[in-house]
Amino acid sequence: MNSALALMQTELTLLRRDTTAWTTAIALPLLLGASWVINEPAIGEGLGAVVVFQVVGLLIFTLHTVGTMSLASRREQLVLKRWRSSQASATSVLMGTIGVPAGLVVAQAAALTAITVAVYDQMPASVTMLILGVLAGVISVGAITFVVAAFTRSAEHAMITTFPVIAVLMGVTVWALTRPFDAFDWPVLAVPGGGAIQLLRLGWEGPAGTGLTTWLGEAAPSLAATSLLTVVATAAALRWFRWEPRG
Q1: Is residue 21 within 8 Å of residue 11, measured between CB atoms?
Q2: Domain for residue 98, yes or no?
């Protein structure tokens, strides 16, 4: 744990020094999120759609794009190889590298949600479901990021390799928000990001005043789909991820 925290501090310092990275990770998603508060997205209805677009934007730019850039850059510069040969475990090295963008997603999601609540003076049906939605997105997209980083040669190359995941996340967002909330079913949940989007919508549009058991029952399919996707992505990452540039 101490090794991971130390590496996260290093990554945070490197992020502050990289204009492209911090602009992509912080400035761009915050500006987009604020714009959706002022002008609601044309797709979907209500604050549920606003928050979904905000979080998906964070997952795309802050976590997936910057995470892939960081992993590819550290590997290209042999930083991952040096850290891997230190006393830090492989898990600490990888969590330390991806921990900063993941933490930024959580912090920025909380800030944007608070702004949305303040502007519209409306509370979500379940804060717990919103938190689960953000965490589900971070975990599943984080696992996919490692898979994409395995095939990314450099930070510049990440602009190409991240595009398919970005397209899928945007596509499933549009697909999900054009469907009635109660019609959100397994075909959507099977697509990366679908489970997180369902949990976010449930947090805003779900039945208010119900007990924890009811909430967990409503969230179970989304959590199951996210868990399955994460397991598959993790297995793929373990199979293909490399600590040093390919020869």
Answers
A1: no
A2: yes
Q: What total of structural domains would you count in the chain?
A: 1
- Distance CA(95)–CA(91), nearest Å, equals 6
CA distance 33 to 245: 36
Residue 109 lies in a domain: yes
Cα–Cα distances in Å, from 7 out to 3, 74, 79, 103, 154? 6, 12, 11, 13, 20
Task: Tell me which amino acid residue 82 is.
Answer: R
The first and second tokens of residue 37, run together, are 């508060």
pLDDT digits (tens, 9 = 90+) for 122-161: 888 888 889 999 999 999 999 999 999 999 999 889 999 9
Whether the predicted model's global pTM rises above the 0.85 cut: yes
Domain that holds residue 73: 2-240
Virtual CA dihedral for 207, 121, 129, 58, nearest 10 degrees? 140
